[in-house]
């Protein structure tokens, strides 16, 4: 079964607005990663947050991690039409040796 | 240069046929993976190889057989294709160790008719 659940499943916003996506997972992790998938393309790594970190920034991306709640959020600030894609969280679990992906959030940014 | 490349990008075939998908990475990574993405966009690990050795073999039908001739290549052979095998198959690679990201190929969209 899927490790993670993401919400919302779909999100539509206007350019310039912020987009927040949430991810929940079930087991202990080494780290949690976020990936972007443009339509018909492969996944591209965005950011990684370790299990002992609570917040991380990279450009317009801000990721938080709450291991007590087994949840993470991805915030994209000042969104652009080019941010339109599906976003997936993925967990690297202890001893797992492969990423386990969430169900994904489809983000549509209207120009 | 493409880091992880897989071929073909599209594959349309009839039920019962046998097909292969090839994957190559030029990143020098030790670990390679096959993931399956279904029509609802769920991504699930199928296999993982580390230095040509099978590490993960999820609950995948025996009709699926991965082959890793060297650590830069991981091919996927599928026998007796079924309608339910239709999906997008992604190859990926990563370096051994903790806190490493995975690099994905562009995907192979398999349609079984």
Set out the fold topology.
The complex is a heterodimer of chains A (111) and B (113).
Chain A: E1 5-7, E2 10-14, E3 19-24, E4 29-37, E5 43-50, E6 55-58, E7 61-66, E8 71-76, E9 85-93, E10 99-101, E11 105-110
Parallel strand pairs in A: 2-11
Antiparallel strand pairs in A: 1-3, 3-8, 4-5, 4-9, 6-7, 7-8, 9-10, 9-11
Chain B: E1 4-7, E2 10-13, E3 19-25, E4 31-37, E5 43-50, E6 53-57, E7 64-70, E8 73-78, E9 87-94, E10 103-104, E11 108-112
Parallel strand pairs in B: 2-11
Antiparallel strand pairs in B: 1-3, 3-8, 4-5, 4-9, 5-6, 7-8, 9-10, 9-11
Structural descriptors:
heterodimer; A: 111 residues; mainly beta; Immunoglobulin-like; 6-stranded mixed beta sheet; 0% helix; 59% strand; globular; B: 113 residues; 7-stranded mixed beta sheet; 4-stranded antiparallel beta sheet; 56% strand
Task: Explain what you see.
- The complex is a heterodimer of chains A (111) and B (113).
- In chain A, the strands form two sheets. In chain A, strands 2, 4, 5, 9, 10 and 11 form a six-stranded mixed sheet that branches. Chain A has a five-stranded antiparallel sheet with strand order 1-3-8-7-6, with no helix packed on it.
- Chain A has one domain (5-110): Immunoglobulins (Immunoglobulin-like).
- In chain A, strand 4 and strand 5 form a beta hairpin.
- Chain A is mainly β.
- Chain A starts with a strand and ends with a strand.
- Chain A is built from no helices and eleven strands.
- Chain A is globular and about 45 Å long.
- By secondary structure, chain B is mainly β.
- Chain B has a single domain (4-112), classed as Sandwich (Immunoglobulin-like).
- In chain B, 0% of the residues lie in helices and 56% in strands.
- Chain B has no helices and eleven strands.
- Chain B is globular, with a radius of gyration of 13 Å.
- The model of chain B has no long low-confidence stretch (mean pLDDT 93).
- The chains are: A mainly beta (111), B mainly beta (113).
- The A-B interface holds A 2, 30-31, 33, 35, 40-45, 48, 50, 86, 88, 90, 92, 97-101, 103-104, 106 and B 4, 31, 33, 35, 40-45, 48, 50, 55-56, 90, 92, 98-99, 101-107.
